[in-house]
Structures are given as structure tokens and as C-alpha cells.
Amino acid sequence: MFFTIIVPTRNRPTSLNRALESIAAQSFTDFKVVVVDDASNTEQLSAVQEIVSQKGDNFTLVTRSILERSHGPNAARNTGAEVSNGQYFAFLDDDDYWCDPDYLYAAHQAITQKKNVDFFIADQQAIRGEVVVVDEWLPHLNRLAKSDNRGLSFSDVRARDILQAEGVGFPHVNSSIVKKELFDEIEGFWEGSPYEGDLNFFLRLLSRSKSAVYWPRVASINVLREDALHGGVNSISAESKMLYRILVCEHARLNSTGWPRKYARILQAGVLKTLAKNRYSISRDWESAGDLALQATSLDISIRWMLISIYFKIRTYVHQLLSK
Predict the structure, then answer these.
(1) 3-class SS at 263?
(2) Residue 203 and residue 259: Cα distance in Å, rounded?
(3) CATH of domain 3-235
(4) pLDDT, tens digit, 9 for 90 and up, residues 233-256
(5) Is 228 helix (H, G, I), strand (E, B) or coil?
(6) d(Cα 251, Cα 259) in Å, to the nearest integer?
(7) What residues have CB less than 8 Å from 190, skipping those under 6 apart?
(8) Alpha-carbon distances of 4 from 162, 180, 284, 307, rounded to whole Å
(9) What is the C-alpha to C-alpha distance for residues 307 and 10, in angstroms, rounded to an integer?
(10) Three-class DSSP category at 35
(11) Which of 15, 116, 120, 143 could form a disulfide with 95 if both were Cys (CB 3.0 to 4.6 A apart)?
């Protein structure tokens, strides 16, 4: 198969069915779909098995036991990759869907026309209910790209173009297609964090990618939920998410080079600054604020933040003296 499409899922058969239907609607059909069920409960797994069995011979299901070493979408995607042999890997989250039936066709055209393409990207929108929350996922790339009336013109892009502060700031797995050899080279998704594994993946991938192509069309819809699901990413506290992002950036810095490493360093510094501000303004924890500000300064040198670090440290010292 030219493409292997990996779909992680857990206890969401209804939304999974919509995702799989959007894949089945693709005009390019040289693909295999690997649905990886990440330890759904018995009732939901039965529904998933029924849904996948109805989709045809190029849809297959892999089940992961609750006893597996690690869980979550990153582990499930890696499991899917282990049993896949397509030349390129595409991904789709079970609660999202592809909205352009020519997505795989466009990717195949770009890959065969340009040769040796490591990484293919398209745009994405995010919705909550019926409202479009994010109209352009990668607005900077849309300004760089030029499309003909059929939307089949492609733009060669660099890591620096892709990793811009505008929009979300990095691609989404739903609209990303990766050469199998490159996926294997970076050892797939890092399973060390339950949050922002996709950010870590793209930083490491872009550090090794020699050829990236962008298609300026919205290929997928990211469906945002309003409720915080127990055990899901949405249930993680805001501060915990920031701490995970620091971990993700630290790992990416150690395993990337060039602009992706710089991006990870600046992003990590920004998160540390936000945490420092919160510790100062919300909990009046001068000592933690000073430590965090100092760490941020070491990653992204700034006279302003150096002075802020010194101020926090002085306030800590004064507070300790007055407390004796």
C-alpha cells in the first residue's frame, strides 16, 4: 500500500465511525487503515469491532490490552506503525475527520511529482459545536503558498516556515503524512508525556526532514469538546499542561537540531515565564517564581527577565528574614 492510515481510539465508537467514513470517502484508494483500540471497555470494544468489520478489507483493527506498558494516542500510533508497511504514514484522531475527499490524492500527486518528499502537510480547521474556532491552523504557510483553481499546487516549505508563532504554531497529525523511513529514523512518537506528544514529534521530525511540502487546503476538522473528560487530556490542569510542555520541549531540544531546537528552547522559556508570573501573582510564591524566571533566562537571555529574576530572589530573601 502507498499509504497506511493510523487511527488511535478508545471508548468512542460513534466518533470513530465518522472518522473512518471520512477516510472511506477518499478519491485515492491505495491505502490501508489500521485502527488501534487502546484498551476500550468490553462493550465499546465490541462496537468498535463491528464498525471496523463493516468498512471493508483495507480496514483492520489492532487491540491493545489494559496491561500494556503505556497508553494514550502516542503509544497507540506507535503500535499501528509497528504492524504497517505503507510507504507513507497518515494519521487521524478518532474524534476528528477529514473534510476533503482529495486529501490523499493531493498528497500522492505531490509525493510522486516532487520525488523524495519526507513530509506532506495540509491545513486544518477547529470547530466547537457548529462554530469554527480556528479558521486557519497554519496561516503563515497559507500566505506563502499559491494554489491554482483545483487546489493542487504545492509549496516547498522549511522547518522555519512551518514553526511560526502565528496560529497554532505547529502542524496537526490529522493533516500530516510522513515517510515511513523518517518515522522509523526518529523512532516514532515519544511516549514520555501524555500531553503534546504531537509537538515533540514534529520538532524531532522537522529536525531530520530534508523535504517538506505544504498543500494550502483545509483537509481535516479538529473537533473540540466542551466538557473535560475523565482521564483525557482535557482533564489535565492548566499548570500540569505547562509542566508537561516543559518536559516535551526539553526532550525535543535533546533530540533535534537547527531551528526546531531553537523553537523548543524559546517555547520552553515562554512557558517558564508564564509559570513564574502565575507563582508571583496568584500564590505569592516568590522563591518558585525566582527559580522559574532564572531557568527561563538561561534558555532565552533577556535583560528584563534577568532583572525580574533578581527581584524575585531579593523578595524571597527579605521574606525569609522577616519570617525569622
Answers:
(1) helix
(2) 9
(3) 3.90.550.10
(4) 566 789 999 999 999 999 999 999
(5) coil
(6) 15
(7) 74, 197, 200, 201, 204, 248, 251
(8) 24, 9, 51, 52
(9) 48
(10) strand
(11) 15
